[in-house]
Amino acid sequence: MHRPFQFLITGLFSLLFFVSMTSAQGGEYIIVSGGPAARQWEDLRKPGEQHDRWWANFIAAAMTRVKDLRSTQPNLPITWLVYRDGYLRRSAADSKPYTSWIQEKQAKYNLKVVWFSSGGEVINYINSGSNRRSNKVIGFEYFGHSNKYCFMFDYSSAVYGASSSWLHQNDLSRIHSSAFAPNAFCQSWGCHTGESMSDLWKKATGIWMVGATGKTDYSNGHLDGWKVKLSSGAHWRVKG
């Protein structure tokens, strides 16, 4: 065999092997939506202090992000983790089938809906929701209530002015850093995450989580295409 032809064949097999390995590794994008506040509690607050007048703030913002991803990566595997209990409570109060409407988005946006009820379940999905040796997490984004120390999945839902389901920064050490691709993108769209939790996320996963210093704002989302805004004086902390 002539050497130039041999090099061509060898190079071709190397290229095919690289493509097959890349395809096999794949990647999964995870989006998490917390639940809305209960109107029975929020109606006790002054009008300017109320949360979640609309039940779907964290749903609409998440789906806007999904549409952005789909515009450039139509076949990207996306898993949407949704805090079920909050929507069941709000559904009962409003007499609306919110969980059914959420489930319908699985087919509409070509994604996988996974219901959860605790921060531990979110961690378990990150670690082993798929074979993380071959299917790394290439993106993680959170839409919901939060403070500087934790994601609050049901703030003012089961308990007035508090949360009974959360993911605290002290639990982040349970996440396997090997679950993430080296170039994964992570962002929290909740309030104050960049003030503490982002640092612990980086320590646990090796990936920096973009987070807000200050508050984020989901109100009047229809005026901004259902994209999350920063409140006055807040800014995004994009690195440690």
Describe how the helices and strands are arranged.
Blueprint: H1 3-25, E1 28-33, H2 39-42, H3 57-72, E2 78-83, H4 84-94, H5 98-108, E3 112-116, H6 119-128, E4 137-143, E5 145-146, E6 150-152, E7 166-168, E8 180-188, H7 197-205, E9 209-213, E10 216-217, E11 229-230, E12 235-237
Parallel strand pairs: 1-2, 1-4, 2-3, 4-8, 8-9
Antiparallel strand pairs: 5-6, 6-7, 9-12, 10-11
What features would you describe in this structure?
- The strands form 3 sheets. A 7-stranded mixed β-sheet has the order 3-2-1-4-8-9-12, sandwiched between helices. The chain has a 3-stranded antiparallel β-sheet with strand order 5-6-7. Strands 10-11 form a two-stranded antiparallel ribbon.
- It is built from 7 helices and 12 strands.
- 35% of the residues are buried.
- Residues 1-25 have low confidence and may be disordered.
- The chain has helices at 3-25, 39-42, 57-72, 84-94, 98-108, 119-128, 197-205; strands at residues 28-33, 78-83, 112-116, 137-143, 145-146, 150-152, 166-168, 180-188, 209-213, 216-217, 229-230, 235-237.
- It has 240 residues and is of the alpha/beta class.
- Helices cover 35% and strands 22% of the residues.
- It has one domain (26-237).
